[in-house]
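Lab notebook, bench 4. The sequencing result for the construct came back, and we need a structural model before the next group meeting so we can plan mutations. Quick request posted to the team channel:

Model the 3D structure of this chain.
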Amino acid sequence: MSGVYMKLWAGRFQKEIDKKTNDFNSSITFDSRMAQEDIAGSMAHAAMLAKQGIISKEDGERIREGLAGIAGDLAAGTLEIDPEAEDIHTFVEGELTARIGDAGKRLHTGRSRNDQVALDIRLYLRGAVQPIREQLHDLIRVLCDKAEAHAHTIMPGYTHLQRAQPITFGHHLMAYAEMFLRDISRLDDAVKRMNVSPLGSSALAGTTYPLDRETVAHTLEMDGITHNSLDGVSDRDFCVELAAALSLMMVHLSRFSEEIILWCSWEFKFIELDDAFSTGSSIMPQKKNPDIAELVRGKSGRVFGDLMTLLTMLKGLPLAYNKDMQEDKEAVFDALDTVHMCLTAFVPMIDTMKVLPDNMRRAAAGGFINATDCADYLVGKGLPFRDAYKATGTLVALCIDKGLTLETLPLADYQEVCPLFAEDVFDAIRLERCAAMRRVPGGPAPENVLAEVERVRRLLG
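Done. Here's the predicted structure in token form:
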């Protein structure tokens, strides 16, 4: 069917809507991606109407067959969505009526576009979350593989972007694995709350037809129904919650991107990105730019903006449905698309990056990051921690004055500051030992990193 679509609200109005106003009002350009969900909801609704005797079994069967044909044709590409339709609901119902006649006009019995769209977007988002969830799984698996390979690779840990204490690169990577595990958990929670059916709320006050809402929910593999018709059509918390989860995910990706950008700079040179995930300069032939990481970092702001759009759109709305809520889809769809696009590039970028352990080790050796371990050594000899801290600070100042490190400072200088120092101090402050001794649960000891890798792999299944 193509051409003129009857407005689903025709009857009250005596003249056609202005063309420009119609274009402004239309949502078909973005809600068309919910076509299959709209059809699935309509098929479940039609089956229920027939089961309840609200429409005849024959009409119910014709409706379901017609909808199945539309779904198949859309999937095969033999039917195109007409942009002249006001929205996806208008298109599907118009196409159905063109195919099966008056039976198609009975589909909307006991239903409004308000509860229909509320159902469609829940069904669509439920499905759209899964590819992102799978991408996070892939990213975490890559991090586990890299962490396992670098469980013993010494690098400086930072606070305030200043070298602080020795850790391993594997430990650092698994910190991001923890963040992305929480992101998966948040996605799962968001799906849990969105997976209830509002169908039967109708426009705002339910309907006088004896609908079986629970059967529709069960058919659509939803966990239950909404329990207030006003809330059923006006709730978009699940859109906000999903956008918030995606925003926090982008925070994590952006933080990781920032470190990637730092690490592949000449000032750090801890890693090198594969050529497939870098670009050059049009004028400087030596450049190899981390553009993918920079774009991910930049696109985080776009997702944050989508979240703010949803919050602002909802904050002043009285119950129940208002046209403002049409703005929900573009924002949450954009957030989903952006995150999916970022992960598509980010996962293989991390998988193919080359780690430069020698550069990490040199950076760790030059930052006095074993100073805490030096103080702990004195505590082990019986000196109070505050006195040990002061003695070690004196040693660091001495090293800076002499251009040495704690590893290269002569024992005589140690003993001049504190006579408790002995030859074994050099083993105590060896960077590998400093990391290996941090066996406290959650610490960077290689054995902890390997155990954490196995734990996370088990969680992923």
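The chain has three domains: 19-109, 114-209+222-362, 367-460.
Will bring this to the meeting.
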